[in-house]
Design a protein that fits this description.
heterodimer; A: about 130 residues; alpha/beta; Rossmann fold; 4 strands; globular; B: about 210 residues; mainly alpha; Serine Threonine Protein Phosphatase 5, Tetratricopeptide repeat
């Protein structure tokens, strides 16, 4: 199997994270590595840096990982998680400025075609363009 | 300046306990203009810090601050984790390089405030914790070396919190409320004030 960009979904809600991952899977099957996490370290609504780090490592690909997030804290915690990765991986992870569900499905579909990390990010972020 | 382990321990303990005691108030403020989790998030982070208190206070000050920062990052569960985490990580980093306490206190605090600003892509006046931290930094600069420095920092922090009431939030969850965010104390500004005041009280109580 050719390497494809991995996708990570980070929501405040574990239900949304899982549901989004299900929708991605329906589109790309197992062609793309997909990992997700939702909820704070106690399991309530929120996000958790250690869970995000685990998800990025689970979806790891030599082509990189695109992270899709919902609201503010998910983005801040994801950016922090990226900085805490081992240095060889840090530059190969991007947090996309895109709506979480549409962004994840579009990013994964693009990734499945073998696109680069920059291309995957650009496709997801077109959704946020004016 | 090397900080004695017992002093560091009592300061960290007092600050964490004060935040935990303020959790209901922080939650109530956040329910008004946010998602209502600031109190429980800060409590979770501070409890994790208390759980590592012995390990933290056994470190030199720079490493202790970094350990506090990392603990908050890993346990808070909201944006305040990376924001406060970055504050303590940057303060520790400044001390690991060429900065010394007490002479460089304003510089070290300034590095920490810059890290919060960068992490949140935010500036003073947006109804955030920076609206307390930046005025405190100004007082640390202007009143450096003065005998009443601690008292002035306390006053600055308390007044700065109140100045967030008429502000309209443009960063964070409160910004979703637009003009309806006016008329409330910012919860992040309040937690910053609680931390600053607790450290001031701890320093004043030193024998």
């Amino acid at each position: 199997m050719t390497d494809t960009v991995g996708i990570v979904i980070v929501s405040h809600s574990s239900d949304i994270a899982k549901g989004t991952a299900d929708m991605v899977r329906q589109m790309v099957g197992s062609e793309v590595k997909v990992a997700f996490c939702g909820g704070n370290p106690d399991g309530g609504l929120g996000t958790s840096v250690p869970l995000i780090i685990d998800a990025i490592n689970a979806a790891w690909s030599p082509k990189g990982v695109a992270v899709l997030v919902d609201l503010g804290g998910a983005e801040t915690n994801s950016e922090m998680a990226v900085e805490m990765l081992e240095s060889a991986r840090r530059d190969l992870v991007v947090v996309c400025n895109a709506p979480i569900v549409e962004g994840a499905v579009m990013a994964a579909t693009e990734a499945a075609g073998g696109s680069s990390l920059a291309q995957v990010k650009a496709v997801a972020e077109e959704l946020s363009a004016d | 300046m090397s900080v004695p382990s017992e002093t560091l321990k009592s300061l960290v303990k007092a600050a964490a306990e004060q935040v935990i005691a303020s959790a209901p108030e922080l939650t109530s403020l956040d329910q008004a203009i946010g998602d209502g989790d600031h109190g429980t998030n800060m409590k979770r982070g501070c409890e994790a810090v208390l759980g590592k208190l012995d390990a933290i206070s056994a470190q030199p000050l720079d490493e202790a601050l970094k350990m506090i920062g990392k603990t908050l990052v890993m346990t808070v569960g909201g944006a305040s984790g990376p924001l406060y985490g970055s504050f303590f990580l940057a303060a520790g980093e400044a001390l690991s390089h060429d900065k010394q306490l007490p002479d460089d206190l304003a510089d070290v605090f300034g590095s920490a405030v810059d890290a919060v600003s960068a992490r949140g892509r935010s500036h003073v006046g947006e109804k955030t914790m920076l609206d307390v931290l930046v005025p405190v930094l100004e007082t640390l600069k202007t009143a450096a070396g003065q005998p009443d420095l601690i008292a002035r920092v306390r006053t600055t922090a308390a007044e700065a919190v109140e100045r967030t009431v008429p502000m309209q939030a443009t960063k964070g969850r409160a910004s979703f409320l637009g003009a309806r965010s006016v008329g409330h104390v910012d919860p992040g500004a309040r937690s910053s004030c609680v931390l600053v005041q607790a450290v001031c009280a701890g320093l004043e109580a030193r024998p």
